[in-house]
Amino acid sequence: MPSPFVPQLVLGLLVSTAGPCAQSSLVVPQRALLRGPGTVWNDQSLEGSPFHGRASGLTAARTQYRIDVTEFGTAAVWDLRSLAGRPFSAIPNRSTTVTTTLSLSSSNGAHDAALPTFVANHGADRQVVFQGRLSLPATTGGRWPAGWTASVPFSAPFRFDGLRMGTLTVDFETTANTGGADWILEGYRAEAGGMFVPSGGTNCVHSGGQIAGIVGVPEQNLLPGGSLQVAFAGLPSGRPSLRLNALLFGSSGIGGRIGSFTVPVELSDLGIDAPRGCGAAIGDLVGAPLQMAWFDAPGSQTQLRLAAPLPIPDLPQFGGARFFLQAFAMDVSSRGPEVISTIPVGIQIGPGTPIFATRVSQPYDPAQGAPAQGRVEVGRLASLRFGL
């Protein structure tokens, strides 16, 4: 279960207006100093594109991170002499050798003003700091934090004046990877919420002989300004009657109330024609029911899902909100029309605390030439440590 947001650490870094800062290293994002990704909120991001690898086809990739000086903890003048990446502790990497070019630049543009065109995101002081082959070790996964094992020495220092320039652009272009797979770095994104299935719910078997117990919720969107989408699968195929359905919302789960009843409660005990085991497992209903779209498919792949995501207001007070939902639909069995229920689902909205960086990336086939543009994704950043 997500727990309350842990405030960011305030680093006591020395700031010098006359020359480079005297500390030994800088870590971005600041969150990487506090806790592993995904341990409090759903803020993990698998960053495989900097050291991209495929056995064939799109074997190369270009990746830019535009990092706001906020993520450095303070503003100062730094001479950056090396860069290291931290592998994602939950995922093993195979040893590999990559051929990559790394360049840095600084600018006054906001990180989220990044453009799809790679060259447009660089400042006038662009400097190639590494070009060649880089050996990356095998990692086995394990407890956080992993070591800073992806180390890139710079051919010459790059001076980043964080007092005058608000954004640092870090540009990887990897054109070969002997391992044939991405070497995945740990990464972070905005703090989103998650879904959970409360215990002690219903055990509703539909006319297909199964329980509608497969649920999909894009958790990365559960934050203020994001959206809620939900889909239930495992439903019987060939049942147009499922078009008659309702998605209900409640402020409580097991132990809540529907009128004089405490949930979970059998639908048949509420006077509804339903198989035993099919019941309501959310209580204290709020809002109006929503009709879900029916998508028929062979086997158990039939789904009920929202026709369009529900927007979550971009207001801070929605961060941390928690509610429950459950769908009910008309089935047809040998006994005739009956109402069936899905499993109940709990939803937690995250606080949405952002990462002040933007990623622009694009895999490509070297035989077709390097792309001029990439995909822009605001709020994503690999864990990086700059040596000073």
Which strand order do you get reading across the main beta sheet? 6-5-8-3-26-27
How many distinct domains? 2
Q: What does the oligomeric state look like here?
A: single chain
Strand residue percentage: 35-45%
Backbone structural class: mainly beta
Structural commentary:
The chain has 388 residues and is an all-beta fold. 0% of the residues lie in helices and 42% in strands. It is built from no helices and 29 strands.
Give the secondary structure arrangement, pairings included.
Blueprint: E1 25-28, E2 42-44, E3 60-68, E4 77-85, E5 96-107, E6 127-136, E7 150-161, E8 167-177, E9 187-192, E10 194-196, E11 214-216, E12 227-228, E13 231-235, E14 245-252, E15 257-258, E16 261-262, E17 265-266, E18 279-280, E19 283-290, E20 293-295, E21 302-305, E22 310-311, E23 322-333, E24 336-341, E25 345-348, E26 357-364, E27 375-378, E28 380-382, E29 384-387
Antiparallel strand pairs: 1-29, 2-9, 3-8, 3-26, 4-7, 4-29, 5-6, 5-8, 9-28, 10-25, 11-13, 12-22, 13-21, 14-19, 14-23, 15-16, 17-18, 20-21, 23-24, 23-25, 26-27
